Amino acid sequence: MSQITKTVRLSGSSADSIEDAVRTVLARAAVTIDEIVRFDLVRTGGTVDASGVPTAFEVVVDITFVVKESVHG
User: Is 72 a residue whose pLDDT tops 90?
Assistant: First the structure.
């Protein structure tokens, strides 16, 4: 039987880096979503202070996971 996947779009942020923001989104998603097989970085951005130093890194991520087969008895 062929595999069916679904993609959801999530966002998150980190004070440390874009990579940490992505890792945070994936880790939080994995708490409630099983079988995550892929992610795509859709958008990056962030905020800066008055001197131009980054204060937060923000990401929007598409997360793709396998849809479980239905169980019919």
Answer: no
For the entire predicted model, the pTM comes to: 0.85
In tens, the pLDDT along 3-53 reads 899 999 999 999 999 999 999 999 999 999 999 999 999 999 999 999 999
Pick the CATH number of 5-66 from 3.40.50.720, 3.30.70.2740, 3.30.310.80, 3.30.1660.10: 3.30.1660.10
What are the domain boundaries of the chain? 5-66
Could you tell me whether strands 5-14 and 36-48 are parallel, antiparallel, or unpaired per DSSP bridges? unpaired
